[in-house]
Amino acid sequence: MVASLALAMEGPPVDPEEVLHRVFGHAGFRGRQAEIVHHVMDGGSGLVLMPTGGGKSLCFQVPALCREGLGVVVSPLIALMEDQVAALRQQGVAAAALHSDLDEDVAREVRRDLARGALKLLYVSPERLLLDSTQQRLHEQRLALFAIDEAHCVSQWGHHFRPEYRALTALAERFPGVPRLALTATADQRTVEDIRQQLGLEDAPVFRGGFDRPNIFISSAPRESERGQLREFVKAASDGSGAGIVYCGSRAKTESTAEWLRADGHDALCFHAGMEAEAKRAAHHRFARGDNVIMAATIAFGMGIDRPDVRWVAHLDLPRSPESWYQEIGRAGRDGLPARALLMYGAGDIALARHRIEESPAADDQKRIERMRLDAMVSIAEAATCRRRILLRCFGEDGPENCGACDVCRTPPRLWDGTVAAQKLLSAVLRTGRRFGVAHIVDVLRGRMTDKVAQFAHDKLPTYGVGKDLPDATWRGVARQLVAMGALDVAVENHGELVPTDSARPILKGEQKVLLREDLTSARPAAKDRGARTAVPSGDALFEALRTWRRAESSRQGLPAYMIFSDATLVAITEAKPDDEGELSLIPGVGRSKLERYAEDVLRVVAEHA
Ligand code: ADP
Ligand code: ZN
Question: Is 483 a member of any domain?
Answer without folding.
Answer: yes
